[in-house]
């Protein structure tokens, strides 16, 4: 099962990159410019801290499907899937392909908000609070992508958040 997940994710990542190259989209695969990104990184870390605090004070039930999915893997496999590959796939699609496509057509507001809403919808197994917190985090990740010019920072921050969630034993993103 683990190998199938890795292969499926790898194929999806390859398809995203190939499509982006065919349409000459800027995937943001470059070293980040840190200067303009710092305020948004601080905002994201503050938001994540608030979300973690709210989730700690008012825990929600663990989604049964997510729990079953997690139980079939070792901790190392979960780190590979949920901390490395999952965020890479989501960030390449949301903050690379969608962001780049929307930026040139509709401008920065739509390029940041559109992928954030899409990203939240990908997580419909969670409750309304979690989806809202994901959408807000998506806006901040989009601003980090825009200000840094790179998808590497959003990917790293997304991966770090998933690691915190995994280590805390929470089922929410």
From TrEMBL:
Molecular function terms from GO: endopeptidase activity; metallopeptidase activity
Transmembrane stretches, start-end: 6-25, 37-54, 74-94, 106-122, 128-144
Cited InterPro entries: CAAX_protease, Rce1/LyrA-like_dom
Descriptive protein name: CPBP family intramembrane metalloprotease
Transmembrane found in the keyword field: yes
Domain (CAAX prenyl protease 2/Lysostaphin resistance protein A-like) ranges: 76-164
Pfam families: Rce1-like (PF02517)
Keywords: Hydrolase, Membrane, Metalloprotease, Protease, Transmembrane, Transmembrane helix
Keyword Membrane: yes
GO biological process, any: proteolysis
């Amino acid at each position: 099962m683990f190998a199938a997940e890795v292969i499926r994710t790898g194929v999806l990542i390859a398809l995203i990159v190939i499509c982006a190259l065919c349409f000459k989209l800027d995937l943001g695969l470059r070293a980040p410019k840190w200067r303009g990104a710092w305020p948004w990184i601080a905002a994201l870390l503050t938001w994540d801290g608030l979300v973690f605090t709210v989730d700690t004070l008012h825990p929600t039930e663990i989604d049964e499907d997510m729990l079953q999915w997690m139980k079939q893997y070792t901790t190392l496999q979960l780190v590979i899937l949920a901390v490395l590959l999952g965020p890479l796939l989501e960030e390449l699609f949301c903050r690379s392909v969608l962001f780049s496509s929307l930026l040139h057509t509709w401008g920065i507001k739509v390029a940041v908000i559109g992928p954030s809403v899409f990203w939240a919808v990908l997580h419909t197994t969670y409750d309304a609070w979690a989806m809202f917190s994901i959408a807000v985090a998506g806006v901040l990740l989009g601003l980090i992508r825009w200000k840094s010019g790179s998808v590497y920072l959003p990917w790293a921050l997304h991966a770090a958040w998933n690691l915190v969630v995994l280590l805390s034993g929470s089922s929410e993103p």
